[in-house]
């Protein structure tokens, strides 16, 4: 049977998709329920969760898919560096950092003839 | 009478959470779903299944892996394994969020249900916003935001699937870049514990290192390794300061 056949596609999505992701969330609830607000264990979990999200961020910047796959790495890193500079110099407002990064990237892509 | 007032204000906080749909992170996520529509349409997956997948598999990277497994004709066990490996990060994310949301009286079944709505966007949004919400209303606030975000994206996918159009390259490139930049700015902005800054930096550096060493498990290793190192460094620094003081 292939995935196109009606009910099997839904069963496939439910088992390989829903169950494979929600199992980790349920384990997270069980673990999180045992963590005290001010415990060192929660501090560690917080560090690991943040580092995991940071790893996803780095991957999206360093190894993008789609149009940006063709863009030079120096442009992407340069846009992030300029955006970070604006963020720290101008009152640490997320909107300023995001807008500066995206504007730099857009200008660079245009200049490179995208 | 008292409990009546309490219920009413829970509804108000649920609605406040719903309003989070009109925020930058929700907007960025919806644009990502437009991209996901074009991926699934090209893969030939019927729209009903894409809508079902959007609601059931609430993590975009997991969905992309699921679609590519379906396309390559992978077995159920192989697809389950690939999606599981990409989703381990949900466990510490949920575990870090739960102590921020619950009170002593929050039933576990409710947290188990609500955990389905935790993915990277809702996590970053909730970690930032719940601080301004009274503790006993945080569950209602998160439910309002999380459930609305999922339902809105299911509706979006059902509509957009039929009108998939490609953006001009510069627009598509900038849209893609919005996601990591928003996460970066928001986590830095909302961090209330010193360990978060260090973990963010270590995770960013560890990611390419482990991508080079072990590309299959890069995110997981960078998270556990970088996070543990960040925690150890911050603990050492804190103890040293306590001794010095």
From TrEMBL, chain A:
<feature type="transmembrane region" description="Helical">
    <location>
        <begin position="44"/>
        <end position="61"/>
    </location>
</feature>
<dbReference type="Pfam" id="PF05437">
    <property type="entry name" value="AzlD"/>
</dbReference>
<feature type="transmembrane region" description="Helical">
    <location>
        <begin position="6"/>
        <end position="24"/>
    </location>
</feature>
<feature type="transmembrane region" description="Helical">
    <location>
        <begin position="95"/>
        <end position="113"/>
    </location>
</feature>
<keyword id="KW-0812">Transmembrane</keyword>
<protein>
    <submittedName>
        <fullName>AzlD domain-containing protein</fullName>
    </submittedName>
</protein>
<feature type="transmembrane region" description="Helical">
    <location>
        <begin position="73"/>
        <end position="90"/>
    </location>
</feature>
<keyword id="KW-0472">Membrane</keyword>
<dbReference type="InterPro" id="IPR008407">
    <property type="entry name" value="Brnchd-chn_aa_trnsp_AzlD"/>
</dbReference>
<keyword id="KW-1133">Transmembrane helix</keyword>
UniProtKB/TrEMBL annotation, chain B:
<feature type="transmembrane region" description="Helical">
    <location>
        <begin position="170"/>
        <end position="188"/>
    </location>
</feature>
<keyword id="KW-0812">Transmembrane</keyword>
<feature type="transmembrane region" description="Helical">
    <location>
        <begin position="108"/>
        <end position="127"/>
    </location>
</feature>
<keyword id="KW-0472">Membrane</keyword>
<keyword id="KW-1133">Transmembrane helix</keyword>
<dbReference type="Pfam" id="PF03591">
    <property type="entry name" value="AzlC"/>
</dbReference>
<feature type="transmembrane region" description="Helical">
    <location>
        <begin position="20"/>
        <end position="43"/>
    </location>
</feature>
<feature type="transmembrane region" description="Helical">
    <location>
        <begin position="195"/>
        <end position="213"/>
    </location>
</feature>
<feature type="transmembrane region" description="Helical">
    <location>
        <begin position="219"/>
        <end position="237"/>
    </location>
</feature>
<protein>
    <submittedName>
        <fullName>Branched-chain amino acid ABC transporter permease</fullName>
    </submittedName>
</protein>
<feature type="transmembrane region" description="Helical">
    <location>
        <begin position="139"/>
        <end position="164"/>
    </location>
</feature>
<dbReference type="InterPro" id="IPR011606">
    <property type="entry name" value="Brnchd-chn_aa_trnsp_permease"/>
</dbReference>
<feature type="transmembrane region" description="Helical">
    <location>
        <begin position="64"/>
        <end position="88"/>
    </location>
</feature>
């Amino acid at each position: 049977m292939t995935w196109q056949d009606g009910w099997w596609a839904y069963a496939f999505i439910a088992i390989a998709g829903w169950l494979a992701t929600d199992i980790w969330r349920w384990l997270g609830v069980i673990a999180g329920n045992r963590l005290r607000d001010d415990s060192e264990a929660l501090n560690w979990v917080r560090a690991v969760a943040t580092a995991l999200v940071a790893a996803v961020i780095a991957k999206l910047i360093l190894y993008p898919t789609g149009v940006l796959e063709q863009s030079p790495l120096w442009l992407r890193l340069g846009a992030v560096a300029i955006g970070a500079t604006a963020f720290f110099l101008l009152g640490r407002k997320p909107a300023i950092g995001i807008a500066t990064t995206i504007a730099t990237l857009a200008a660079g892509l245009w200049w490179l003839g995208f | 009478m008292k409990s009546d007032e309490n219920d009413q204000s829970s509804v108000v906080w649920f609605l406040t959470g719903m309003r989070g749909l009109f925020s930058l992170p929700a907007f960025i996520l919806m644009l990502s779903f437009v991209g996901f529509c074009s991926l699934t349409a090209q893969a030939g997956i019927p729209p009903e299944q894409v809508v079902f997948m959007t609601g059931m598999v609430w993590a975009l990277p997991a969905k992309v892996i699921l679609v590519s497994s379906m396309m390559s004709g992978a077995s159920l066990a192989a697809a389950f394994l690939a999606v599981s490996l990409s989703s381990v990060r949900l466990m510490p994310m949920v575990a870090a969020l739960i102590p921020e949301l619950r009170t002593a009286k929050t039933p576990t079944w409710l947290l188990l249900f609500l955990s389905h709505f935790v993915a990277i966007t809702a996590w970053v949004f909730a970690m930032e916003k719940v601080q301004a919400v009274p503790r006993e209303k945080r569950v209602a606030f998160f439910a309002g935001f999380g459930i609305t975000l999922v339902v809105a994206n299911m509706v979006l996918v059902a509509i957009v699937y039929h009108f998939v159009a490609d953006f001009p390259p510069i627009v598509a490139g900038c849209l893609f870049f919005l996601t990591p930049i928003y996460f970066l700015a928001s986590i830095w902005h909302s961090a209330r514990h010193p360990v978060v800054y260090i973990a963010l930096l270590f995770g960013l550096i560890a990611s390419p290192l482990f991508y080079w060493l072990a590309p299959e498990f890069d995110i997981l290793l960078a998270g556990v390794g970088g996070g543990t190192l960040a925690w150890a460094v911050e603990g050492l620094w804190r103890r040293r300061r306590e001794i010095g003081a």
